[in-house]
Design goal:
The chain is of the alpha+beta class. It contains 20 helices and 21 strands. An eight-stranded mixed beta sheet has the order 5-4-3-6-2-1-7-8. Helix 12 packs antiparallel against helix 20.
Length: about 650
């Protein structure tokens, strides 16, 4: 044959927009080669990837010289219009636009093509640089003939001068992406339906699909099709409607929706998130992710993955609604809207069912992981509350936490809340009984006391933490202001009976400010007197608390002088406001004993001296030790009898007797 044997007809803008700049990753490019092999009735596609080249070999029908020029090298070739709906082997064609071959230029600057059919062999080279130069000059580009290095049957593509940014994906990640892009891969079949893809010697199949491996609950459209072995974590599976529109029988789908146990299982370091639903038509991906187009915001979305095969999206007698890279659908098409509405409806139908399934499964996980919880569930035997309790544990178990130690506290809070609600229900039932026997009411009262004890125990535990914080402040010799604020926020440190019941506590208050109307009754020193803490007890007694820095040494005369000023001033104000004979006490909180206590009998003299102003001294160390002793003693004793505490301790790995 004379002259140039191969001819590529192409505008430079087409090369850019439909080739080099259209495809963003190697998986999308290789998908085009796999789809072409399917259309060529190949039974096997072998992809070998190295650091310098990619080889794609299929055992399809191959191409003759005229087919190369008329079909492969003709950009925009209408395969379905020219060759019909299916291949010679009866496979529905995946190709439609005739631009898939340009995808190869997205990841490589050299494309070597080797093909054979009917004993005839052809081979040629296409180079991006030469195509650009030739096409930009207005000339026709003729691919360069090369020595044939293909197989006995089919087509071999060798991609060289790779663009590293587009081909750096790990082989394992690439295998996963290819597996999710085709439903015809890994399907058992004979004859023309058999189709196998290998990447670097390993067959691509269900085992490469991390979405199926993560699925815990599965909903399949129409009927069950997936082999159970493809979903190793599967707990339950269901069948839901596959009918997209009742008035259009051909608009049906295949595929599935699956929910993982945790959102974390849908994150993959190699392929990114698989928290999506891919849409396929004719066995090949046509929409990367439709989930974010559904306007469905329930919590199920975070746990969801899936695949929808919707062949009605790619019918010959209807417009092509796929974008040029065949990875997205045109959103304003009737079929796209119908599919979105159908999927929203499907998600609504499984949402509540999934919630119950998830809570039940996580409840069983919680008990399996923490046998101590079984003890609590056993206490509910014979009631209709056990299922609700399991769901509660499941809800706690399903919460994702950065610090797992917090989960035990959630279990405790959940159990306490559940028990309180249970007692409320039991109390309501008792109120409707005509005969309140001891046998009926005593168990209820016993449970109530246990819950109250457990809740008070939580309060005590919190107070022990506050005491520990005060001890740290004192040992660190913090300023009076810091100590003042800590004691003001926790008046029970000074006296367990001071629970702020009156709401009368004041901090850093001056009599001039709070009793301005009585200013004429006060001396200047009295009106400017600044009280650290002032408090009125439920018994009506007024308490003035004066704090000193923990390392400060004072004399008794200083305390008496300051105490007399506060007592006389406050007494005048209270009497002028109508309160006769007010009871006023002064408490001095010190870090060190006053100087006079060092002498013989000094403690007694100091105590007698302060009686004149109804005053007393409390030392930080004594205050801390007393509070710690009171609350720790209760905490230790209650720990032995608190059944809920025993459960939580067991969860924490503690051993209590």
């Amino acid at each position: 044959m004379t002259g140039q044997p191969y001819k590529l007809t192409l505008d430079l803008r087409v090369l850019d927009h439909l080739g080099i700049k259209l495809y963003s990753n190697a998986a999308a490019v290789l998908s085009e080669a796999v789809a072409n092999a399917w259309d060529a009735d190949a039974k096997s596609v072998v992809i070998d990837i190295s650091a310098t080249e990619i080889t794609i070999t299929d055992d399809g029908v191959g191409m003759k010289r005229d087919e190369i020029n008329e079909r492969f090298l003709s950009v925009g070739y209408d395969k379905r219009g020219r060759e019909g709906k299916a291949s010679a082997g009866g496979r529905p064609f995946m190709g439609r636009k005739g631009i898939g071959k340009l995808a190869l230029f997205s990841i490589a600057d050299e494309i070597h093509v080797h093909t054979t059919r009917g004993g005839a062999t052809d081979a040629f080279l296409m180079e991006t640089k030469e195509i650009r130069k030739t096409v930009s000059s207005g000339s026709t580009y003729y691919p360069k003939p090369i020595a044939f290095a293909g197989g006995k049957q089919g087509t071999r593509l060798i991609l060289k001068k790779l663009k590293k940014k587009r081909t750096t994906a790990a082989i394992a990640g690439l295998r996963k992406r290819i597996a999710r892009r085709f439903s015809i891969i890994g399907q058992p079949g004979k004859g023309s339906s058999h189709f196998e893809v290998k990447i670097n010697g390993k067959t691509v199949g269900y085992q490469d699909r991390d979405d199926l491996r993560a699925v815990e609950f599965l909903w399949e459209f129409g009927k069950q099709r997936l082999p159970s072995a493809s979903c190793p974590r599967l707990k339950k599976r269901f069948v839901i409607s596959d009918e997209v529109q009742a008035n259009k029988p051909s608009w049906k789908v295949r595929g599935w929706l699956g929910a993982a146990a945790t959102p974390h299982q849908l994150r993959d370091s190699e392929t990114g998130s698989i928290n999506n639903i891919v849409v396929l038509a004719r066995g090949r991906l046509i929409q990367e992710n439709v989930l974010d187009k559904l306007s469905f915001s329930r919590i199920l979305v975070s746990y969801l993955t899936g695949q929808v095969d919707a062949d009605f999206l790619d019918l010959e007698d209807m417009d092509d609604i796929a974008t040029s890279d065949r990875q997205r659908l045109l959103e304003d098409d009737e079929r796209t809207g119908a599919l979105s509405a159908f999927l929203r409806k499907s998600l609504v139908s499984i949402q509540d069912e999934w919630t119950d399934l998830r809570n039940e499964a996580r409840g069983k996980d919680a008990v399996a992981e923490n046998p101590a919880l079984a003890q609590w569930l056993d206490s509910l035997k014979g009631t209709n509350l056990r299922k609700s309790a399991e769901r509660l544990l499941g809800l706690v178990r399903s919460v994702e936490l950065e610090d797992e130690t917090e989960r035990n506290q959630l279990y405790r809070s959940g159990i306490l809340a559940f028990e309180r609600l249970r007692l409320t229900e039991e109390s309501h039932n008792l109120s409707n009984l005509s005969d309140l026997s001891a046998a009926r009411i005593l168990p209820l009262l016993t449970d109530l006391s246990v819950i109250e004890a457990s809740m008070y125990r939580d309060i005590v535990k919190a107070r022990l933490d506050v005491i520990g914080e005060l001890q740290s402040l004192v040992e660190g010799k913090e300023k009076e202001k810091i100590l003042q604020k800590h004691l003001f926020d926790n008046l029970w440190l000074l006296d367990p009976g001071w629970e702020r019941a009156t709401g009368s506590q004041l901090i850093e208050s001056t009599l001039k400010k709070n009793y301005a109307i009585f200013k004429p009754h006060l001396t200047d020193a009295q009106s400017k007197g600044r009280l650290d803490i002032r408090y009125r007890t439920n018994a009506g007694q007024h308490i003035v608390v004066e704090l000193k820095k923990s390392d400060r040494l004072l004399h008794i005369a200083e305390l008496v002088e300051q105490g007399e000023k506060y007592v006389s001033a406050l007494e005048k104000c209270l009497e002028a406001s109508g309160e006769s004979n007010p009871q006023i006490a002064v408490i001095f909180v010190l870090g060190k004993p006053v100087a006079e206590e060092a002498s013989s009998g000094g403690k007694k003299r100091v105590s007698e001296t302060l009686k004149g102003i109804n005053g007393r001294i409390v030392y930080y160390d004594t205050l801390i030790a007393t509070a710690l002793r009171q609350y720790q003693e209760y905490f230790d004793k209650s720990e032995k009898t608190d059944k809920i505490a025993k459960i939580i301790d067991a969860l924490s790995g503690k051993s209590k007797t």
